[in-house]
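Section 5: illustrative case.
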């Protein structure tokens, strides 16, 4: 079993399309989705089904690691929860990101449901990083992810 690169659910390692979210699974190194690996990384906060506090600690570690590696964008998989109201990890993750944005520790963040071509922040992001135009989450309305611009 591996985790879906889009929604973070457990799927068989040889499944090309996730049965949960319908996302196509890329055959690239886990976590890195750019050809050079230099600007973007996928971070899965749901792996192992942690408590909120553990997931937020992992988020902080990944943000620090991303800065050290000179990454520009992180796609954070936090899930949306099974209640349809948003999962606790996602809700708290976005609160932390809003706080960090206010402090100037991150540039900005784009919730997955707003990561679409018609969104001004997404268009700005794609101007800066045109490689993201082929991102599998673009225009999908995925509430279980957030893109963080460092």
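Designed sequence:
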């Amino acid at each position: 079993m591996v985790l879906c690169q889009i929604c973070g659910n457990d799927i068989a390692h040889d499944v090309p399309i996730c049965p949960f979210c319908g996302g196509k699974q890329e055959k690239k190194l886990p976590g890195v989705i750019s050809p050079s690996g230099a600007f973007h990384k996928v971070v899965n906060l749901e792996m192992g089904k942690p408590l909120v506090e553990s997931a937020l600690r992992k988020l902080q570690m990944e943000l620090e690691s991303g800065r050290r590696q000179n990454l520009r964008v992180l796609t954070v998989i936090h899930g949306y929860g099974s209640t349809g109201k948003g999962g606790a990890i996602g809700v708290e993750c976005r609160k932390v990101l809003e706080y960090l944005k206010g402090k100037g520790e991150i540039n900005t963040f784009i919730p997955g449901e707003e990561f679409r071509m018609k969104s001004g922040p997404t268009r700005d992001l794609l101007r800066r990083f045109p490689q993201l135009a082929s991102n599998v989450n673009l225009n999908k309305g995925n509430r279980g992810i957030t893109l963080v611009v460092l």
